[in-house]
Amino acid sequence: MAQTTLPETHRILQLTSTSEPLQLKTVPTPQAGPGSAVVKVLAAGILSYSADIYNGKRQYPFPKPLVPGSSAIGRIVAVGPDATTLVPGQLVFLDCTIRGRDNSEAVILSGISEGFTEASKKLMHGEWRDSTYAEYTKFPLENCIPLDEQRLLGPVEAGGLGYCVEDLMHISKLVVPYGGLNDIGLKPGETVIIAPATGPFGSAAVRVALAMGAGRVIAMGRNETMLHKLSTLDTRIFTVRITGNEKTETDALKKLGPIDVFFDISPFMAANSTHFKSAIAALRHSGRISLMGGVYADMSFPYLSFMHRNLTMKGTWMFSREQMFAFVKLLESGLLPLGEKNGLSVGGKFELEEWEEAFEKARVAGAGEVVVIVP
Question: Distance of CA 200 to CAs 172, 177, 226, 255, 305, Å?
């Protein structure tokens, strides 16, 4: 039977200073008000660099004290008086990308970053300060994404997909590239370059592109072992190694063409990588480019070539609420399988008091692994 009452207190992890360890505390349980739901956290995601966020190495902006966290899977226990669809007992995905209701440009990442505007800071310094490394969390109604529990967690013999709750935390990685691929209009049968493809979000993009019906997915990367692993997932996956030689890469890509789309999700350290120019050079006339990476440096591109070849470039940060719902439909259809058969696994489950071990496990986890806190 679904829980419908809240305890007076619950346990949280709290950050008071980046120079001190997180603290396990017992505090009053949050209450639902207008525009919010209180959710029992079943599994909360951990980023590979979470330790560097909360020890100050990455210098992310956020208020203190803070309940850290990220996206999560949970079950609704209470809703505000204006909830029209969500009900207690419902299984939901908690989307950590919280936007201002009266200003969609005010965006925070729950438990991670307050953003860089006064409007976004107001969100995180006020109503949405505390995140998901807790037994219960208060979240905006619109960030509680309903999941078809019977379909996703039900046994295969009864028409379900047979996943466990922790499997569903792969949503947090897979939905990000879906935003960019959807924005750039990836169509069934098209050929798409994913680069770099061997990290957590790049390898997720490979799987999402396949689920969206791509005819060919060209995975670029330096790690030959990871490229080989990706190539075994589907006969539509082809690989091209990033060598540092732009011409060699372009020639290898063109042999797999014509290429319709280039999806880039480069980390900040890839600012000087040759793949950016080689992938653009390999695109067909009227090709499209999606930028979702974290490169801080300015990058140049061939202006005349862009103009003469009718190329389109579009940046996407995260994903929209509409894309989130569309992604869930894709997942529930079974077209985007989770689990070991698709190279996706749960690398570890840890309780709140085991947070240090959890952060370390997440740091060394493979690209297809999720590590979660289970309060």
Answer: 11, 11, 11, 27, 32
Cβ atoms of 69 and 132 closer than 8 Å = yes
φ, ψ of residue 63 to 5 degrees: the values are: -75, 160
CA dihedral 131, 137, 141, 142 (to 10 degrees): 30
Task: Measure the CA–CA gap between 46 and 358, rounded to whole angstroms.
Answer: 8
Reading the block at residue 113, the tokens are 């970053």
Whole-structure pTM value: 0.94
pLDDT at position 3: 62
Do 212 and 188 touch, CB atoms closer than 8 A?
Answer: yes
Read off the pLDDT band of 257 (50, 70, 90): confident
Rg for the chain, CA atoms, rounded: 21
Tokens of 350: 């840890």
Residues 80-107: tens digit of each pLDDT: 999 999 999 999 999 999 999 999 999 9
Q: Looking at residue 5, what is its pLDDT?
A: 87
DSSP string, 302-337: -HHHHHHHT-EEEE--S--HHHHHHHHHHHHHTSS-
Give the DSSP letter string of 61-84: ---SSB-----EEEEEEEE-TT-S
- Helix, strand, coil content of the chain in percent (nearest 5): 30, 25, 40
